[in-house]
Amino acid sequence: MSKPPITASTIIAGVAGWPVRHSLSPLIHNAWLEAAGIDAVYVAFGTPADHFEDFVRGARGGAVRGVNVTLPFKQQALAMATRATERARTAAAANILIFETDGTISADNTDGLGLIAAFKGQARGFDLAAGPMVILGAGGGARGATAALLAAGCPEVRILNRTLAKAQALAAELGAGVVAGGLADAPRAFEGVTAVINATSAGLANAGQLTVPLEATPSSAVVMDMIYKPLMTPLLLQAQALGRRTVDGLEMLIGQAAPSFEAFFGRPPPGAVDVRALALAALDP
Q: Of the listed 74, 120, 166, 229, which one is catalytic?
């Protein structure tokens, strides 16, 4: 089914961030919209850092149905919401804002759902409750991932960060089942883990690399990187060289996009379209 032409009743949704021109979200959502024949369009809203609040206020009342929110606005998005899901409150960040017609704003966070979906898609048979997991980083991505893993039954999350105090503060805030350490603690922290997840920007183009002793992980451990550009980060290449199974950030992006699509358009995305293939083609230099 082809996508209807844009009309006066076309639903508008999108992604807000800065910068946002690199985002694959419009490609993914518009492919789903076309396959479903929904009268809607999904666009990128490049919102400079000092204008995000103006953008949100201007979208209130339903002129825009909703937006995914990406860096650096996820915490601001939550603060501007009228109400928020438990997922968003626990993550202390929102990656979805829904603009209701009465002027209220609803916030949610599907990043954790995307992480879980990525493991299910690329690490078949992986049991999230089977043992401890390590998260590298202590920012918003690490917070959301930790909350999602604990909710899924992971018995212990070990947060490792360059700045130990930041990891300790996050562990104290999230409570039981979370322990903190510095990156220098990685050899000991990796013992007996079922997975290692990179939630830092290290590995992103021009953002430096992350050097950790993955050889200290069990041979059965899964290694995930939230970054999807490049798709195969240095961390994932290191993991593959050691024979570890890997999960990439593109799978997480698609995993969080599916519940976002349903929040915006009222139905799950159609399964007939291979959005991963489309995204891989777009990533190919």
A: 74
Cα R_g (the chain), whole angstroms: 19
pLDDT band at 190 (very low <50, low <70, confident <90, very high): very high
In the chain, count of helices (H) and strands (E)? 11, 12
Distance CA 49, CA 206 (A): 21
CA 11 to chain centroid = 24
Gap between the Cα atoms of 126 and 23, Å rounded: 29
The whole-model pTM stands at: 0.92
Among residues 190, 171, 271, 285, which one has the least CA distance to residue 235? Answer: 190
Per DSSP, the three-state class of 107 is strand
Q: By the 8 A CB rule, do 41 and 33 touch?
A: yes
Q: What angle do CA 175, 78, 28 make, to 5 degrees?
A: 105
Residue 120 annotated among the catalytic residues of the structure: no
DSSP 51: G
Cβ proximity of 260 and 282 under 8 Å: no
pLDDT band at 215 (very low <50, low <70, confident <90, very high): very high
